[in-house]
Amino acid sequence: MSPTSETAVTELDRPYPLPRRAVDGFARDGFVHLPAVLSAETVATYEPAVTSEVIRLNRQHRPLAERDTYGKAFLQVGNLWEHSAQVRELVFSRRLASIAAGLLGVESVRLYHDQALYKEPSGGITPWHADQYYWPLSTDRVGTLWLPLQETPMEMGPLAFARGSHTFSLGRDLPISDESEASIAQALAEQDFEDVAEPFALGDASFHRGWTFHHAGPNRGSVPRRVMTVIYMDANIRVADPVNDHQVADRGWMPGAEVGAVPDTPRNPVLFDRRSQ
After folding, report:
1. Does this model's pTM top 0.90?
2. Domain of residue 55, residue span
3. Structurally, how many domains does the chain consist of?
4. Does the pLDDT at position 72 exceed 70?
5. Considering the domain boundaries, does residue 266 fall inside one?
């Protein structure tokens, strides 16, 4: 392991000073944009490993013009931690998991799954949607880390959020699609939800709740918008009865976990427990 990697690993294990205003803002707004979650050095250490796995594991090879709206939004590869020891260091970071626990207001969090989302140059919009539509989980104590692996100006399509929309139920029955883009955008505008879109500096990250509506613009830049995401859930959450076909499929992230049980599987380890600190 190189000295740079040793420095990065140390940072991934070191606590992030999560301010009270961030916790309060997350509860009120359904998301928070945190500055300098990781150093530029740490991001530079792990970006090549994530990108290498995206290139190796990606199964989307059709030209952009031949894809539907979802396919144009990004290249999507999940559970990279199972394929790369270096990516595992990033996904299993106690620093990142402790932020998730603090924001969600729980003692401990376990991994649901990770997911790389790479928006290619000229890649299209990410339609309005809420992630929890896809999750067969018993509570909303679930949150997603959105970690760009480069500086992300507005032209690259950073993630944007409808402030306070985690309390809004209309549109929760829609998968990400052209329909969700049109219907949710109209409903949010009619209720005057603020659409918060802002650039991300290198090392910034956002966290959002499962029912927070969010979207992203197209990538008008000349390089891919490279993003790593990690979904954290309350370590005591339980598997719920699926209410749609997507949730049936998503049970695959928790192999062997029965409905009503805590998903304590090898794929869903506890990443942070405040009581063991």
Report:
1. yes
2. 3-252
3. 1
4. no
5. no
According to the 3-state scheme, what is the secondary structure of the chain?
CCHHHHHHHHHHHCCCCCCHHHHHHHHHHCEEEECCCCCHHHHHHHHHHHHHHHHHHCCCCCCHHHCCHHHHHCEEEECHHHCCHHHHHHHCCHHHHHHHHHHHCCCEEEEEEEEEEEECCCCCCEEEECHHHHCCECCCCEEEEEEECCCECHHHCCEEEECCHHHCCCCCCCCCCHHHHHHHHHHHHHCCCCEEECCECCCCEEEEECCCCEEECCCCCCCCEEEEEEEEEECCCCECCCCCHHHHHHHHHCCCCCCCCCCCCCCCCEEEEHHHC
Mean pLDDT of 190-202: 98
Name the average pLDDT for the chain: 94
- Is residue 275 assigned to a domain? no
| 263 part of a folded domain | no
Number of Cβ within a 10 Å radius of residue 181: 18
CATH code, domain carrying 55: 2.60.120.620
pLDDT digits (tens, 9 = 90+) for 217-236: 999 999 999 999 999 999 99
Q: How does residue 60 score in pLDDT terms, banded at 50, 70 and 90?
A: confident
> What's the confidence (pLDDT) of residue 227?
98
Is residue 261 a part of any domain in this protein? no
Q: Under a CB-based contact definition with an 8 Å cutoff, are residues 122 and 219 in contact?
A: yes
* Gyration radius (Cα) of the chain, Å: 18
